[in-house]
Amino acid sequence: MKQRKSGESLTMGPGADSIAARAVKSATANEAAVTVGPDARHWYMKFLEFGSARQAPERFLTPAFEVNKEAAVQLAGAELWKSIAATARRLARQAESGRISPRVAEALRS
Q1: d(CA 5, CA 24)
Q2: DSSP-assigned beta bridge partners for residue 33
Q3: For the segment 6-45, what is each residue's pLDDT rounded down to a tens digit?
């Protein structure tokens, strides 16, 4: 739940509601990547977080990340595990019914 809804970050204005986590393309096939930040319409929020030549940074996202990073990793791991388990069940059903390709069958054996 965002702090804006609780009334604690009203000074940030509409930019607070634009902050979200988004999946992004990772560098390799064996990695998952997520970015957290404002949407394209609220690009100026990066200047609040990191500052500029004329404005000191007003950190709001970094402290929130530091407090919640362990919980975020746990949630991501739980969701990933659910996805892996569902895929394994689906592949097992396909293997039992003989609808699985030889390449996938070989990968499952290894």
Answers
A1: 26
A2: 24
A3: 555 555 566 777 888 888 888 888 888 888 888 888 888 8
